[in-house]
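[Q] Does anyone have a clean structure-token version of this?
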Amino acid sequence: MATQKQVGGIALGVPGTLYGHNPATFYLPTPIAGAGGVTIGNFVWPDAEGAMVNKGTGTPSGVVVRVRVQPLPSDEDATMLIPAGHAVPVLVRGPIILASASAASIGQKVFASLTTGAVSTAAAGATVEGHVETEFTVRTSAAAGAPFVASRD
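[A] Here you go.
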């Protein structure tokens, strides 16, 4: 049997995961997920009752972090959805792993979909249809759909 000589295709991490050991700032008080729940790794806005949802207008409050904050019943599969009514850790400042519908290049800005909170990337000041520019910046390059590091310093 041959010995493995190289390793390839190792992913950076899972979208919504904090990156490194740098300080991170969270939205306080910790909000809850609104109707339909929220997707981890996507941006959120407060709804009329103050709960977080993955759609809105203007600058989003932050991005949903992948932290286990609710029990996972033993008869359900794991998902990237935090159910309605559960705590939502929202990163306001710091490094996080995200995945974008577009290729990410170092120095680009992160844009949030106004209808889903999903991530796209483009040059600062660019117009991305249906998206709003956030204060997060791309720190590592990645192909479309692949994880990359973004941060708001």
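[Q] Thanks! Anything notable?
[A] The mean pLDDT is 91.
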